[in-house]
Amino acid sequence: MAGVKLRIQKRDNNKGHYYLEYYLGSKMINGKQVTQRKREGLSLDIYLKPKNNIERDHNKKNKNFAEAIYREREYDFMTSTHNLPNKNKGNKNFTDYFLEFVKKKNLSDKGLKAYTLTLNYLIKYKGKGLTIKDIDYAYCRDFLSYLLNSSKTNGEKLSTSSIVAYFNKLRLIIKELNKEGLIPVDYCKDIKSPKLDTKPRVWLTQDEITLLVNTPYHLRNIKELFLFMCFTSIRHSDVIKLKWKNVVKEGDNDFIKFQQQKTGEYLITPLTEDAKKMMGERKGDEDLIFEGAKYSANNNEHLKKWAYLSGIKKKLTFHTGRHTFATNLYIQTKDAKATSKWLGHTSAKSTEVYIHLAEQTLFEKAKELKQIID
Predict the structure, then answer these.
(1) Mean pLDDT of 19-40
(2) DSSP letter at 243?
(3) Higher pLDDT residue, 78 or 346?
């Protein structure tokens, strides 16, 4: 029969250790009925033959602790086994519940990272000490406000898509708590997330890239780095960490192999002749390709100034380089699958936006056609 027992494991040095033994029923293995058990050590020891009052007091204290833990575990085990509401779980640490919820989902590295980032913001917001019963509507509502006013480690404000993604992770946790009967209502149900940005993505045509190539700028980590992104699609967060050891030559093929910071996945990116020209002379394997490069608001201002000097009126950011490569690649190849693979996308949806941008150019070209009929 399923249940929990408190037991003592004897040692050779006049010491014993408390542990719990869980009986999980039995099942047939190789034609034999085998009892299923598991153990949980309690890190509480006792003297098997106490010699003085100090050792007897020690035994009494640890016995009380062990029995208290036993009663709590037995209650949890029985309510779980018979699908009964468990009042004890309301006292459970919310962070612990969050981690257990994530562990049960068996997520990919990318999915796990999203939950980890969400938990980091939750801890910064209210700390680690909250229990489940401390969670209420105000906690959820104000967490959204906290995200809206938060910044990344580089000082940049969180994007709307990141805010929505992190808050949606909390939504799932709150919904699960409500399903389990640990909170009375789904506190996030009536909280509206901010609308996702619908601004058109900025990208550069081949002619505009040529304008930038021909416009001098005194900072290598602005001009050459941005153009390298336009010729490879590699994200700025990855480019600034690339080392010469990431550059590989196999036969006639030159490429960069690296682990993407955003997804954790490894990616191989072919190097075009244009991209290689932006990298400069090869140095030691551990040297950065773009030494001293980093994200800063000041660098974005330099990028805008350089674009202005070239005659480009579009508002550029470093991520424009990635959009530029992806859109131009699809325009030239019409191969959505190859574009997706080059960018390291795990979902076709992520690539669709570049297909849309490329197709939009057809309508722009149509407007340039000379009218023949009055």
Answers:
(1) 85
(2) B
(3) 78
Q: What's the alpha-carbon Rg for the chain, to the nearest Å?
A: 30
pLDDT band for position 85 (cuts 50, 70, 90): low
The beta-strand segments (E) located in the chain are: 3-10, 15-29, 32-47, 247-250, 253-259, 266-270
- 109 and 72 in a single domain? The answer is no
Q: How far apart are CA 100 and CA 282, in angstroms?
A: 47
How many other C-beta atoms lie within 10 A of the C-beta of residue 271?
A: 19
SS3 content of the chain, % helix, strand, coil (to 5): 50, 15, 30
- Is 164 among the domain residues? yes
Q: How sure is the predictor about 119, in pLDDT bands with cuts at 50, 70 and 90?
A: very high
Cα–Cα distance for residue pair 217/231, rounded to 1 Å: 18
Beta bridge partner(s), residue 23: 3, 37
Do 359 and 216 share a domain, yes or no?
Answer: yes
Together in a domain, 172 and 233 = no
Q: Give the pLDDT band of residue 373 (cuts 50, 70, 90).
A: low
Residue ending a domain, choose from 84, 110, 145: 84
Q: Does residue 236 sit in the same domain as residue 136? A: no
Q: Are residues 70 and 96 in the same domain?
A: no
Phi and psi, residue 263, nearest 5°: -110, -20
- Confirm whether pTM is higher than 0.90: no
The residue segments making up the domain with residue 175 are 90-179
- Domains held by the chain: number: 3
